[in-house]
Structures are given as structure tokens and as C-alpha cells.
Design brief:
It is built from seven helices and seven strands; from the N terminus they run H-H-E-E-H-E-H-E-E-E-E-H-H-H. The chain is of the alpha+beta class and 320 residues long. It folds into two domains: 128 residues; 144 residues, 2-Layer Sandwich (Beta-Lactamase), CATH 3.30.450.
């Protein structure tokens, strides 16, 4: 008579959990790789966007517009107001930007000097963005000729003078932390006499970079997680019922069916609860998808604004 193969309870438990472990490993690895890649792509996209924004905005600025503006005494120069108005219009056309400014070289290669900035002629009330009654250090406006250290900002040292450029990493100054795009301002001879810069707050940059998981990918992750939870719960409950069957068949065979029915009902109740949780998770996912759609609409709106700005610039160039 052939011997019946005996499988220990521990062996059965190990086999039961192999599939969930494999699923967890695959879902976790794929999700991590996808999210990391998406964030990296979004970061590159935002940097390209701010660099291209600077390249378009600089077409509105002529070198002759700030000629002779080089010291604090020039705050009353009649040429400064129209120039700062242009910088304000550029900043307002780029919803995520904080500052738009013009800088020129000095005798020190590691220092530039400010020519103009969008908030240069703001009142103290306008500069006091936190409404605490005083203009803090990180709210102060610059003045023409004010020096700026660029020793920690490689893009401003060379690349920005050769063509559109962007900071490779987040930079820091007294006003905060930024990702900035630059473009050279050329004179009539084609020589770069200054640069135009656009600052995006680092927190805004990081926030936009993190909102990079597409709705479909988010749905896959949530669904896989929900299925996995239901599967693990089902396996655990089934093993528990099998243990009860064996135990009761040895000691209380007559009560086994009653206990199984009771445990089966418990299992069905638990299944209903799991399905309820899946519905709730699906609702949360739908809300997240709506948020991502709103973000996408906002970015599309910004691209349309940039297109309108480019067309306006082309019209201005055609008129001149």
C-alpha cells in the first residue's frame, strides 16, 4: 500500500504565503521604480520649463532700456519704472515664479550686480508679504548696483551668459531657496551685457516634482494593494478554519459542522467588510485623480499663457 505524503502545518503556511510575498515584492519594486523615474522626469521637465520661460521673456528686454542704471541713485530714473513694469508682467504670466530680475557683471567674476527686479519699486506694505508690520530680511527689495555673490551658483557664472540656462540644483540666498532659469540680454552687437533671471521657490519646485504619479499608475497600485490584502486575509482565515476542522474532527466531530458554519459566516462578514474598504479606497482614488486633473489643467493653462506671451513678443518684434 503506497504511503500517503504528509505535509506539516508549517510547510502549508509557508506555501500559502509565497504568492502574497511575490506579489508584494513585484508591486513594491515596480511602484518604487516608476515613482522615482516619474519624479526625475517631472524635475527635468520643470527645469526645462523655467529655462524656456527665461528664453522667451528676455525677448521683451532691450539692452538700451537699462543703460545708465547702475546705482541706488537711479531709483528715480524715469527709465526704471517701465522696466520694472515689464518684469512684473513677466512674473505674473508665470504663476509659479517669485522673482524676475536683471543682473550685469562686475569686476569680480564671482559677483554680479542688480540692475532691476520686479519688486524693486514696491512700497513697504507690498514687500511685507507676511503682514507682520515690518520688512524682513527675506522680503527686502534690491537696489540698482547691489552686489550678489554667485560663487555657489555655477549657471550664473558662465552658462547663463552663453544661452538659456537653469540651475542644476536648488540654490540658496537671503531671500530663500530657488530653482532659477536664465537667459542673456544682448546689445546691438550681439554681446551679452546682462542676464535675465526667473526664480521658482524650491518648495514649489519640490511639490510639483512630487505630483508626478499618473492616475492610471495610482489606480494600479491601490488595486494591487487591495487585492493583496483580501488574498492574505482569505488565506489566513482558510488556514484557521482548516485547523478548526482537524481539531474538532478529533474531539468533537458532531459539533464540527456548526463551528464551520459559524466561522464561514464570520468569513463572509469579513469579506463584506473588505469589499467596503475597497469601495472606500476606490473613492479616495477617484478624488486623487480629480486633483491630478486639476493640476494638469493648471499646467496646460500656464502653457497657453506662455504661448500667448510668445505670440505677443513676436507681434512686438514685428512692429519694431
Amino acid at each position: 500500500m503506497p504511503m500517503k505524503e504528509h505535509t506539516s502545518p508549517l510547510s502549508r503556511k509557508i506555501k500559502a504565503y509565497i504568492i502574497p510575498i511575490i506579489i508584494v515584492g513585484i508591486v513594491s519594486t515596480c511602484s518604487y521604480a516608476f515613482i522615482t523615474r516619474s519624479r526625475s522626469y517631472m524635475s527635468i521637465h520643470i527645469k526645462d520649463d523655467v529655462r524656456n520661460s527665461a528664453a522667451l521673456a528676455v525677448l521683451q528686454i532691450e539692452a538700451s532700456e537699462f543703460e545708465g542704471i547702475d546705482s541706488e541713485d537711479d531709483l528715480s530714473d524715469p527709465k526704471l519704472k517701465p522696466l520694472t513694469d515689464k518684469l512684473i508682467a513677466i512674473q505674473e504670466a508665470l504663476p509659479n515664479s517669485e522673482y524676475v530680475y536683471i543682473m550685469r557683471k562686475t569686476g569680480d567674476p564671482m559677483q554680479l550686480e542688480f540692475v532691476a527686479e520686479n519688486d524693486m519699486l514696491f512700497s513697504d506694505e507690498e514687500l511685507d508679504t507676511d503682514n507682520n508690520g515690518i520688512v524682513d530680511t527675506d522680503e527686502e527689495a534690491v537696489v540698482p548696483g547691489e552686489l550678489f555673490d554667485i560663487s555657489e551658483m555655477p549657471a550664473m557664472q558662465q552658462a547663463a551668459w552663453e544661452g538659456p540656462a537653469v540651475d542644476p540644483e536648488i540654490t540658496h540666498d537671503q531671500w530663500g531657496s530657488w530653482i532659477s532659469g536664465y537667459a542673456p540680454i544682448l546689445d546691438s552687437n550681439g554681446k551679452a551685457v546682462a542676464i535675465l533671471g526667473i526664480d521658482i521657490d524650491a518648495n514649489t519646485f519640490l511639490s510639483l516634482s512630487s505630483l508626478s504619479l499618473p492616475p492610471k499608475a495610482l489606480a494600479v497600485v491601490v488595486l494591487a494593494g487591495s487585492i493583496l490584502l483580501v488574498y492574505i486575509f482569505y488565506i489566513t482565515r482558510r488556514q484557521y478554519l482548516e485547523m478548526l476542522r482537524r481539531k474538532h474532527s478529533e474531539k468533537h466531530g458532531q459539533d464540527l459542522e456548526v463551528e464551520v458554519q459559524k466561522r464561514t459566516k464570520d468569513l463572509e462578514d469579513a469579506k463584506v467588510e473588505c469589499e467596503k474598504q475597497v469601495v472606500e479606497r476606490t473613492k479616495e482614488l477617484s478624488e486623487k485623480v480629480d486633483e491630478l486633473k486639476k493640476l494638469n489643467d493648471l499646467m496646460i493653462g500656464r502653457e497657453l499663457k506662455m504661448k500667448e506671451l510668445k505670440e505677443e513678443i513676436e507681434n512686438l518684434k514685428g512692429n519694431t
